[in-house]
Amino acid sequence: MAHTPQNAPGADARALQGTLVVEFGARVGASAAGSLLAQLGATVVFVESVRPGDFAQPKWTYREQYAAGKMSLAVDLHDAGDCALLEALAAGCDVLLLSSDADAAAYGGSPWSVRPSGPVVCDITAFGSSGPLSIRSGSAATDAQVQALTGVMECTGTSDGPPRAVALPLIEQLAGIYGAAGVLAALRQRRDGLPSPVEIALYDVAFSAMTSFLAPAMSGQAGEAATRVGNRHTMAAPWNVYRTHDGWVLLCAGNDEQWQRLCVLMHGAGQEPPAHLAKNTARVAHAEEVDAIVQTWTRARSIDDCVALLLAQGIPCGPVAPLDGYPREANLQHRRMVLDAVDPASGRGIKLPGSPFRMTRTPGQELTGLSVKDADRARVKALVRSPAPLARRNVPTGLPLAGIRVLEIGHYTTAPVAARLLAALGAEVIKVEPPEGEAVRRWPPTRNGQGVFFTFQNADKKSLALDMASAEGRKTLLQLVSKSDVLIENLRPGALARKGYGHEDMLALNPRLVYCSISGFGLDSLYKGRPAFDSVIQAMSGLMDLTRINGMPLKTGPSMADVMGAAFGMTAVLAALESRERTGAGQYLDLSMQDVCAWATQAGWNREGAVASEQGVVQCADGYVLAACDVVEVARWQVQLQADGKSREAVIAALIAAGVAAEPVLGISEVVAAPQTRTRGLWCAVQEGGTEYPLLASPVRLTLTPSPVPRPGPRLGRDTQAILGTLT
Q1: 407, exposed or middle or buried, with CB in 10 Å at 0-12, 13-18, 19+?
Q2: I want to staple 131 with a disulfide (CB 3.0 to 4.6 A). Which of 23, 75, 679, 687 is the partner?
Q3: Domains with residue ranges and CATH for the chain
Q4: What is the C-alpha to C-alpha distance for residues 451 and 215, in angstroms, rounded to an integer?
Q5: 3-state SS string over 336-388?
Q6: What is the pLDDT of residue 397?
């Protein structure tokens, strides 16, 4: 069922060895969570239906991917025997994964809804248990519908075209990562007597992924029209994908110096650019002209030639890896993220994703075993056990990470967001910054001189201003490391080691330390030292190949590589802490954003040709509507309803009356102000020092121990003296 890499320790060291997970939830998110828990050593029962259901996107649509490494149990929930087996399994398991909004429809209308009190119950739904959308009637919302309602779709596409939905269930995949994190957090509470139920809503997950767009909207600034920029960057040019004679290459010249170096390359080809493009602000204003110049240069070369020349000049770039059966990219092969397997039902060879859990003591298991449907019924019956006794309390003893100290040496998104999510679970997080502070502190818009983006990305942390290169700074950091549980960083691979803070040295100093590095391509990589912006990772993981416009690969509007990297960082740290509970030993985590993004594309693997990405988008007088029909039908409805002259509300009513599900494609400001967003408390305004700051809630909800209202990200060095006082 599962394969453990040769360098893995004994089975007893796996974080979830001996943990029984019943994956009943029919959503892809529930199954993605189950797969991650299986990689961590849990025994997972993949429950699937023998009856055709009405849910549009159940996990068994992509069975080859999500049943791998699990035991198959096919059930008819109109059969009393199957219901009794499920109830017995659920009563004695450790974790029960549900999708309460979709399960009844997916399993053929069954009323089965048992929620035993002993296991950790994780419910992954579209809208959660509160808010006006949580009680909507009709079919359960799909991934694409959630994209429409949360701004994800509005900001994906080109400025001169309609919004686009990502073709595969990407929000479900992200929800699965958060679901696994929530389960790991609740399992910590279960040891203390009472686990908190875990609630993950796709709506919450998608909203939290929109961070690069939320700062202006939550600050009351307008500017909705500029949300779709294709593959461009709103603050730098050239930044786009360009044709070569054998494919596509992504190029990111983020400053004037990189542009000058690029011009040296292009000048040799007779493409000397006009003088008025010397400054970045001018290039952004004339992005089409800049793109045409670069396109002339790339079109005359191969992908390999472009990449080699650009990297030699220190210009971030990368080929767009095709998702042709699986992501075709050398570093993914090097890191064993593409595995060979056999589908026993058909006998054909298939590709399955490896594990992004690159951990020195407890690496993720490779899930390559795949059972025929219901082949494991006898083995599953043998797993039925009596409920484990729990030391009952009315509420859990506290937040799951209370007493855990986390050091963050990070910038921009991945490590800072992962650390913020750990803080929301109760950890003490100390953000270590250089004396001048992290550059993101000054990003506009600002409040009282501090960037709004920085403030909400670094909520609930302490700030330590430290010169790590000085003798005194080194002494202080080593003292902190010796007294901490986790160190999380996202500097270039090896950067801390070159300063004397490598993971071998830090683990020798503190053997219980969980040292987590998040980078674009991993420490063990073919691309040592290569810059890794979000766009580069989307290109080189297969993620950008999911959505195309006239053949052009298109990135997701939200910075999904950054967001998924951060969510996975939190999950991996929780897994390593769980392993430490069993062994007493820390370990090093080598996490790659490319690995995580490639894993997230798995629903598109083993398919012939490119993944279809056209969506049913109807243009209205006041925006767009996502309709549950193909593009041919959309064109008919566009004409029949005269939709371009009607409001979204009128078009949606007409489509629903005709039996076509439809959702408005909401803009960012609409989502920020939406009743569902407000009721769920996905963001709030908090006063500190006479200034009001917008802050984000965590998408991981433990219903018995909710995270407290967050505190704004700290002023630079605010806590330095207090922290130093704890070291004397």
Answers
A1: buried
A2: 679
A3: 11-212+361-392 (3.40.50.10540), 255-315 (no CATH), 405-600+714-725 (3.40.50.10540)
A4: 9
A5: CCEEEEECCCCCCEEEEECCCCCECCCCCCECCCCCCCCCCHHHHHHCCCCCC
A6: 67
SS3 at position 313: coil
By C-alpha distance, which of 383, 261, 243 is closest to 316?
A: 261
Q: Which amino acid, 173?
A: Q
Element housing 561 (H / E): helix 560-583
Q: What angle do CA 327, 330, 333 make, to 5 degrees?
A: 75
What's the token pair of residue 213? 């767009």
Rounded CA gap, 338 and 202, in Å? 27
Interhelix angle 560-583/170-191, nearest 10 degrees: 20
Residue-by-residue DSSP string for 412-473 = SSHHHHHHHHHHHTT-EEEEEE-TT--GGGGPSSEETTEEHHHHHHTTTEEEEE--TTSHHH
Report residue 623 as tokens.
């925006």
Residue range 341-362, pLDDT digits in tens: 999 989 999 999 999 999 999 9
Separation of alpha carbons 588 and 286, rounded Å: 46
- Please say whether the beta carbons of 366 and 4 come within 8 A: yes
pLDDT band at 393 (very low <50, low <70, confident <90, very high): low
Quick: pLDDT tens for 371-384: 999 999 999 999 99
- Report pLDDT for 208: 97
Residues present in the chain in total: 728
Neighbours of 50 (CB within 10 A): 15
Alpha-carbon distances, residue 128 vs 50, 101, 182, 386, 512 (angstroms): 27, 9, 14, 30, 37
Contact 97, 25 (CB under 8 A): yes
Q: For residue 327, give the H/E element and its range.
A: none
Alpha-carbon distance of 516 to 528, in angstroms, equals 17
At 663, is the secondary structure helix, strand, or coil? strand
Which amino acid, 450? Answer: Q
Residue 215: predicted pLDDT: 85
Query: Are residues 3 and 76 in contact, defined by beta-carbon separation less than 8 angstroms?
Result: no
What does DSSP say about strands 450-451 and 514-519: parallel, antiparallel, or unpaired?
Answer: unpaired
Residue 668 near residue 227 (C-beta atoms within 8 A)? yes
Q: What average pLDDT does the segment 140-144 reach? A: 94
If you search the block for the tokens 């000049």, which residue do you land on? 313
Our measurement of the distance from residue 140's CA atom to the centroid of its chain's CA atoms, rounded to an integer in Å, reads 22
**Where residue 396 falls among pLDDT bands split at 50, 70, 90?**
low
Question: Residues 172-214: pLDDT tens digits?
Answer: 999 999 999 999 999 998 887 778 899 999 999 999 999 988 8
Query: How many angstroms separate the CA atoms of 142 and 59, rounded?
Result: 12
Q: How far apart are CA 204 and CA 560, in angstroms?
A: 15
Please state at what angle helix 560-583 crosses helix 414-424, rounded to 10 degrees.
Answer: 50
Q: Which two tokens stand for residue 219?
A: 């600050």
Mind listing the pLDDT tens digit for each residue in 68-99? 999 999 999 999 999 999 999 999 999 999 99
The contacts of residue 416 (CB under 8 Å, 6+ apart) are 408, 410, 431, 440, 457, 458, 490, 566
pLDDT of residue 727: 85
Report, as residue numbers or ranges, the catalytic residues. Answer: 562
Retrieve residue 627's tokens.
């309709």
β-bridge mates for residue 359, sequence order:
589
Return all residues near 10 (Cβ < 8 A) that are at least 6 apart: none
Alpha-carbon 387 to chain mean position: 33
In angstroms, rounded to a whole number, what is the distance separating the alpha carbons of residues 423 and 430?
A: 10
Q: Which pair of tokens denotes residue 288?
A: 């089409």
